[in-house]
């Protein structure tokens, strides 16, 4: 008999929410398709059987909390020195920070639990509304899956149109740091295998990499201290299997939250946190901020899907003893 479960419920506001559970591993997640297909809650059972809440919560997930989906841009766009715009075929289009996908309802395509795990697949495609700000035909599907205690977010971006489809995709998980509210954030440790960041001007990438002083790097892991960060890490160092592993580690609980991804699929990694914030955002991005426009330098452009093409990528998240 399978130890994976799926359950559907409703928020007080009427939107559906889906809870996926791995009973053997003690891990659960919640997804709200109508609120941008946000991964809204993440829990894990500690060795005493108590549930640890691993996401900073939010009342509405266009705001800090959970793990909003960033599409079709990550970060900000700029055109003629003005933030919030980009140019395509000579026309300026508005584009909000991190795109529009997190503000739209997604369709539910599949919900299941079997011996292979528990999963939900949500999808979003172009509409008259999206084409006002993003004049492309597109379809994106996200599958959230729990299997053997790990959570994977599997994306597929398709181009049903007749011209190349530029896009960025990223995730903005607000991991609770420290895990316990009465813990000490300054003692929490972080690991990001990188010794460079991307230079930004007007919040958009210049294409230049800036070396990090090894004493200020997070390789190997080091304490967050009272540091404020909004860093866009470059030159990520994968392991022998091509995977990048970044984590935050709360030594008081003895647990770490680890984010794993392929460096070729997500070459950019952002960390956002501050001493006043009870969270740290560890964000895999497929590209640099500011890369959507036709006039973007070639080395900084968004990934492009050819007509009739499809691009897939995966991010895995797990909680483990450290």
Put the structure in a nutshell.
Helices cover 1% and strands 50% of the residues. With 322 residues, the protein is an all-beta fold. A 9-stranded antiparallel sheet has the order 11-12-13-14-28-24-23-18-21, with no helix packed on it.
What does this structure look like?
The protein is mainly β and 322 residues long. It has one domain (4-321): Beta-galactosidase, Chain A, domain 5 (Distorted Sandwich). It is 1% helix and 50% strand. It has 1 helix and 28 strands. It has one helix at 128-131; strands at 4-10, 16-22, 27-32, 38-45, 51-53, 69-70, 78-79, 82-83, 85-88, 91-94, 107-114, 117-125, 139-147, 150-158, 165-167, 170-171, 174-176, 189-192, 196-201, 204-211, 218-223, 229-234, 243-250, 255-262, 268-273, 279-285, 303-305, 310-321. Strands 11-12-13-14-28-24-23-18-21 form a 9-stranded antiparallel sheet, with no helix packed on it. A 6-stranded antiparallel sheet has the order 17-26-25-22-19-20, with no helix packed on it. The protein has a 5-stranded antiparallel sheet with strand order 1-2-3-4-5, with no helix packed on it. The radius of gyration is 19 Å and the shape is globular. The mean pLDDT is 93.
């Amino acid at each position: 008999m399978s130890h994976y479960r799926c359950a559907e419920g409703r928020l007080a506001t009427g939107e559906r929410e889906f809870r996926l559970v791995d009973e053997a591993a003690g891990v659960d997640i919640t997804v709200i398709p109508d609120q941008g297909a946000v991964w809204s809650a993440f829990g894990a059972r500690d060795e005493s059987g108590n549930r640890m809440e691993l996401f900073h919560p939010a009342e509405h997930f266009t705001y800090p909390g959970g793990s909003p989906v960033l599409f079709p841009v990550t970060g900000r766009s700029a055109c003629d020195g003005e933030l919030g715009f980009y140019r395509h075929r000579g026309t300026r289009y508005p584009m909000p920070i991190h795109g529009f996908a997190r503000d739209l309802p997604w369709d539910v395509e599949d919900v299941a639990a079997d011996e292979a795990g528990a999963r939900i697949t949500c999808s979003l495609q172009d509409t008259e509304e999206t084409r006002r700000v993003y004049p492309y035909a597109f379809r994106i599907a996200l599958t959230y899956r729990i299997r053997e205690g790990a959570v994977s977010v599997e994306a597929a971006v398709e181009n049903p149109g007749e011209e190349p489809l530029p896009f960025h995709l990223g995730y903005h998980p607000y991991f609770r740091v420290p895990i316990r509210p009465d813990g000490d954030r300054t003692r929490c440790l972080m690991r990001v295998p990188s010794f460079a960041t991307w230079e930004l001007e007007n919040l958009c990438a210049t294409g230049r990499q800036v070396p990090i002083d090894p004493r200020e790097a997070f390789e190997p892991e080091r304490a967050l201290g009272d540091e404020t960060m909004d860093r866009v890490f470059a030159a990520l160092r994968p392991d022998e299997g091509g995977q990048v592993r970044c984590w935050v580690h709360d030594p008081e609980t003895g647990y770490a939250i680890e984010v794993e991804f392929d460096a070729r699929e997500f070459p950019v990694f952002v960390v956002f946190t501050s001493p006043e914030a009870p969270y740290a955002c560890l964000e895999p991005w497929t590209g640099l901020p500011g890369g959507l426009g036709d006039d973007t330098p070639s080395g900084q452009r968004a990934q492009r899907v050819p007509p009739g093409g499809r691009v897939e990528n995966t991010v895995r998240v797990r909680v483990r003893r450290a």
